[in-house]
Amino acid sequence: xxxxxxxxxxxxxxxxxxxxxxxxxxxxxxxxxxxxxxxxxxxxxxxxxxxxxxxxxxxxxxxxxxxxxxxxxxxxxxxxxxxxxxxxxxxxxxxxxxxxxxxxxxxxxxxxxxxxxxxxxxxxxxxxxxxxxxxxxxxxxxxxxxxxxxxxxxxxxxxxxxxxxxxxxxxxxxxxxxxxxxxxxxxxxxxxxxxxxxxxxxxxxxxxxxxxxxxxxxxxxxxxxxxxxxxxxxxxxxxxxxxxxxxxxxxxxxxxxxxxxxxxxxxxxxxxxxxxxxxxxxxxxx
Length: 286
Fold this sequence. Notes:
Blueprint: H1 30-42, H2 46-63, H3 72-85, E1 89-90, H4 103-109, E2 111-112, H5 114-127, E3 131-137, E4 140-147, E5 150-155, E6 160-162, H6 164-175, H7 191-208, H8 212-225, H9 230-242, H10 246-259, H11 266-285
Parallel strand pairs: 1-2
Antiparallel strand pairs: 3-4, 4-5, 5-6
Helix pairs in contact: 1-7, 1-8, 7-8, 8-9, 9-10, 10-11
């Protein structure tokens, strides 16, 4: 079944809510969870994706089959196979498009954004014996690999191994010239944190594509994972507002105001609530 440009199947299938607050993250790989989230949002077949990924893993494993040590030589061979021979790369020209975020589309197109490319790369690394982890780095997703003789960091957007100095420059470029790289920034993030980041990227892509309904599905997943996330409740309120679900939007804005009364956006939300209530009252009168 093919996805259209916005990542929607032509004949959507009904998926149960398989991503939820009580999910056992240890029971699934990062890629499995990402594909489960995608399946729930778009109707993409998980089995079809798994078949495609299985073929990809056969290719990668064949390239490193004679290398038994988890060292830099084996890692570079794998990266050359993925990024040079097979042509995986970041897509600068359409960076914020849905097709660059959905892992199934990234696998088939071999183009994407750092987090989706990174999730795929981590799966390939782990399946070939490496200890690989994801980092939600300030400038974009980074892959951390523990080798026999030390730790290396990979930019999944281009497959380059980056050193500490390059990571420092990325931090300063994102957070300002006075920002500095800290040890905490290089700590591997949990599977839960990465999946939340992945779904958030999907949500942002759908918002840019003006597909508010699918953005709302992303928000629903995020709130299932963390029901008390006031900022996500606020964001869902904006989505409800765009869908003219004014009462639901007011409820979400009110919750955020109660939870974060000192936030700078509170006054704006209060005006939004008043405006939506006024419009609702005017419609009721007429």
